[in-house]
Amino acid sequence: MEITVRLYATLSEHNPEGRGNEAFTVRLPDQATVADLIEQLGIDIEDVKQVFIRHKARPFDHKLTDGDQVAIFPPVAGG
Amino acid sequence: MDKLVRVNMTEKKVTVEPLPEKYKGKGGRWLTSLMVSDEVPAGCHPLGPNNKLVFAPGMVSGTSAPNSGRISVGGKSPLTGGIKEANAGSPFPQKMARMGYAAMVVEGLVEDGSSWLLKLNVDGGELVSAGDLQGKGTYDSAEIIRGKYGEKTTFVVNGPAGEAKMAMAGIAFNDPEGRPARYAGRGGLGAVMGSKGLKAIVLDDTNAPGVTPKDPEAFKVGQKKLAEAILSHDVTKKGGALNSFGTAVLVNILNEAGGLPTNNFRSGVFEGASKISGEALAEAAQKRGGAGTMGHKCHPGCIIQCSNVYAREDGSEHVSCVEYESAWSLGANLGVDNLDHVAELVRICNDVGVDTIEAGVTLGVAMEAGLAEFGDGPAAIELLNELGKRSPLGHILGQGAQFTGEAYGVTRIPTVKRQGMPAYEPRAVKGIGVTYITSTMGADHTAGYTIAPEILAVGGKADPLVKQDKIGLSRAFQQTTAFIDATGYCLFIAFPILDIGSGFEGVVETVNAMLGTSYSGEDVTRIGAEILKIERDFNLGAGIGKEADRPPEFMTYEKLPPHNQVWDISNEELDSFWE
User: Fold this and answer.
1) pTM score
2) Which of A9, A12, B54, B159 has the greatest number of beta carbons closer than 10 A?
3) Which residue of B has its CA nearest to A12?
4) Measured between alpha carbons, how far is B525 from B530 in angstroms, rounded to an integer?
5) What is the DSSP string of B165-198?
């Protein structure tokens, strides 16, 4: 399957195209989870706080589906 | 901090008195709300002779505790008609506390339209003519003040919007470099200051006695616990999210959660979000160089340093600071995705002296009314400039979102108790909606920041789209917040202390060591509840009861994309907040 990924804040340095927050495409085997995606991107899962898929927060064991738009965040806060 | 200074604007008299017993051991919001409740008739006109403006540093302000440079300003709000506490981070409260002042009360008003500057010293001080500052923007005023009283002068200044008694006017405190950039912004307290004829305050701390905790050793222990929590938590540590990207690091996560209000609360997603985000600010600071800075602090002793200085393309300073709230209100909320336009809008707000949230929400309503197109940054700048011109349109806009919407027949006005909503969509984040609706302050995110568990997974996790248990969640946050607002600590210490128990202990221990009290963790919520009750009772006296604890009607029937949710917490459930 093919999904679209955006990496934010300090994680954006892992953008494979070196383009910060901009979206990129990732191919994954069927049944892959959020954790599999994070591993494939070479990101330490300890550095990830929140993952949003189609505007909803999802856990690391959430199974991805073709066409998902995934946003990955380190711990962030503000006000 | 055992003195109270009264500034009588009618008689031009400054008097110092011992702090009355009932106010001892209180600070910040606790003290301002209590004094306003005691001394201001709830039914008075906010701009008349009977309203008062109370300034109070927090309980530990002036000490070496980290992030303790907050000041509360209180009074009856010309925007909401209820009680108001707005707070800011600045060197001002640190110096005011070290001068021995627990509070300053500005009362009465000048009747001849003249403008005055208060020179406050340890013995009280004097009011001198501010004719040279009258009508001037805060930047020019600050330059004159620094020229006259020294580059390092600590001051407060009111902008032309406050002098013109506009209900969105805030009060500017200086930052460590002398910019008039740290605002007690919300609720129109600048208009109250303007109504009194007080343009500015400068501090002369010669012979200041300083601040000494009752138990200095215990204070050090608590201080260390808090500092360690701040410096080890991922969002507040050096190089963490706040320090690296500022508060605007929230733009992208709220957008991805579908909760970033866009085009006057028509959608929870903004296509241009990443262009106005904290990441974009950091990139601009790096690429443009010059004055551009992330990791700027609003007061000495801040170890989070979430402020910033935004530079123009040529590296010259444009404005400090572009906060999340401002990037949203003057960006996404207007459909504007150009940071230079956002920065210019923030600069105008700072110069004319208005709250960036209320200004942005008002411009969103003005765009809704057809005064400009969504997405048109230059048109937004032109509209905002009307305030400084004091044109009829400027006076309408200057009264805020509710007034502007009423003037133009707009039905989609995102306000509660006539105060504009901040940067989180209540239909997509239900807990913060409860805070907006039930807060004594009108729509105010800082009153009970449930975004922490609902969006950021800080202090636990809660589903933002689910309405269950949100009344209790908001109540708990509002109580704890009221206590933090009394301490003088920056509210952002809440992130580490929610997750790190020893940090919370450090807060309680520093307060106890400072005051000689023996408060427990439970006392934090008890005192917070007491503060909220003082404020609620004032509002009831002003005719603001449960009928005002209501959402804007359009949010109950208009589905918000992308989650297609309406506001679905009933009025009965909202009423249970105070039961």
Assistant:
1) 0.98
2) B159
3) B279
4) 8
5) T-TTB-EEE--TTS-S-EEE-GGGHHHHHHHHTE
Inter-residue contact B257 to A57 (CB < 8 Å): yes
pLDDT at A79 > cutoff 90: no
- Name which of B223, B249, B251, B218 is nearest B236 in CA terms: B249
Give the integer Cα–Cα distance in Å for B575 and B569: 10
Instruction: Answer for the pair B235, A61: CB distance below 8 angstroms, yes or no.
Output: no
- The DSSP result for B450-513, as a single string, is THHHHTS--SS---TT--TTHHHHHHHHHHHHHHHHHHT--GGGHHHHHH-HHHHHHHHHHHHH
The answer to ipTM > 0.95 is yes
DSSP for residue B20:
P
B160 closest CA partner among B127, B138, B128, B192: B138
The residues that bridge with B317 in the sheet, in sequence order, are B311
Residues 306-365 of B with CB under 8 A from A: 306, 324-325
pLDDT digits (tens, 9 = 90+) for A19-40: 899 999 999 999 999 999 999 9
* Tokens of residue A18, six digits: 């070196």
Which stretches of B246-318 are DSSP H helices? 250-256, 278-288
> What pLDDT, on the 0 to 100 scale, is given for residue B281?
98
Give the integer Cα–Cα distance in Å for B159 and B191: 9
The helix/strand/coil state of A21 is coil
Among the partner-chain residues B249, B457, B465, the one whose CB lies closest to the CB of A78 is: B249
Burial letters for B205-231: b for 16+ Cβ neighbours within 10 Å, e otherwise?
Answer: beebeebebebeebbbebbbbbbbbbe
What 8-state DSSP symbol labels residue B330? T
Q: What's the distance, CA B499 to chain centroid?
A: 24
Strand partners, B88: B71
For chain B (length 579 residues), average pLDDT per consecutive 10?
Answer: 96 98 98 98 98 98 98 98 98 98 98 97 97 98 98 97 98 98 98 98 97 98 98 96 97 98 98 98 97 98 98 98 98 98 98 98 99 98 98 98 98 98 98 98 98 96 98 98 98 96 98 98 98 98 98 98 98 97
Angle CA A21–B459–B444, to nearest 5: 80
Residue B363 one-letter amino acid: L
User: Chain B interface, mutation test: which of A21, A55, A70, most B Cβ atoms within 10 Å?
Assistant: A55
User: Could you tell me the maximum CA-CA distance found in chain B, to the nearest angstrom?
Assistant: 61
A37: number of Cβ within 10 Å: 21
In angstroms, the CA B404 to CA B541 distance is 26
Q: Which residue of B has its CA nearest to A73?
A: B253
Predicted local confidence at residue B576, as pLDDT: 98
Contact A9 B249 (CB under 8 A): yes
Closest to B486 (Cα-Cα) out of B450, B540, B532:
B532
